[in-house]
Amino acid sequence: MKPTRTEDLRQEKTFTILNLFMERGEWTRRELQDATRISYGTIAIVLGGLKRAGIIELESLDESNGGRRAGRYRLVARYGLFAQIEVRTEGFAWSVRDISGSELAGGEISDDEERSINVCLETTVTTIMEIIERTGGDDESTDRKKLLGIGVSLPGHYQHKSDLVLVPSTPRIGEIRVMATIRRHFAGPVSVESDVNAAALYDLERVIGVRAVNGTILYLTVTSDGVGSTLLLDGGIHYGANGHAGEVHMLPVRTANGYSTLGEVIDPDVSVLRVGGAIGREPSFHQFREMISTGHSATEALYPDIVEAFTQAVFLLDNVLDPDCIVIAGVYCRYGPRLARDVARGLAGTAVAMEKVPVLQSDGSDGLVRAGLWRLQARDWARSVRL
After folding, report:
1. Residues pairing with 87 in the sheet
2. What architecture does CATH give domain 6-75?
């Protein structure tokens, strides 16, 4: 067993303090000590190092009560930038954020099936790089243009070693080569995560107000790409032995015609086919979403089956995993937050086993995945900071 080195302890404390600055931009030494229980002297050393590195700055001195005035330090949010790319069935959504998480730019690039999907991804990357070059205004400091990393989310399981997407939501997404494409334009850190894992971290910490630091939290979401889940253990994502824990599409559910799988009932491609059979023509995916938005009778007819299947799956997962909390998020194409609400209502009438398990709801609003990518990127970067 390797002995713990002083520099390793210092780095861990730097990571802890820097994370707090990214959660809340301003702190005094005393506030940091109360929040972390790190010694006052060590905090002073870390703050000095972060200040010399240009990551924080002394913003003001608090009013004195007769003693020495406390210095209030502020994160220099534009020290560096992070870029996020969310891969969706219909294209790519992207954003550029500073280290505080504030979005500076963003947009969407539609998938063009006339071209390779990797060409579309490359267009997204070059768009981001052009934005990075323009960021910073008249300030000539290179720090304000520094791209600290690119994060990518995928509706599928990404295998880093082979640069392949396994179990993709569509065959076309399975053709993406993330690293090979991005490396043509960027040599820095690239992180790849499932869309559900990324959304879960941000949703729990910032939107719902649950800090997933203790216990087990089951987070389930349905998006335009299908259904997925994340299991968080004491604040960290549980990836499993092969890295794809949370794939719930194969869970068995009971339907009017016997038994099927959750994926077969909820999968958007299957739903499009069912709607096509009802109206006599198969709508495009965009038309399918518009039909949901306008409350078309054919898409509304699908809704009870989707709610029932999802409710059964959550009940099964609860009995197997026995989590401390369940969070349901979902806009499923455009059914909206009512899906999470109606599933939670269905669970409330199930069995005694669910009585003590809080079921929280989130609308799974647009932007959660990219914000979650920033959170993962910021954590990785904070852990790499050497003073």
Report:
1. 92
2. Orthogonal Bundle (1.10)
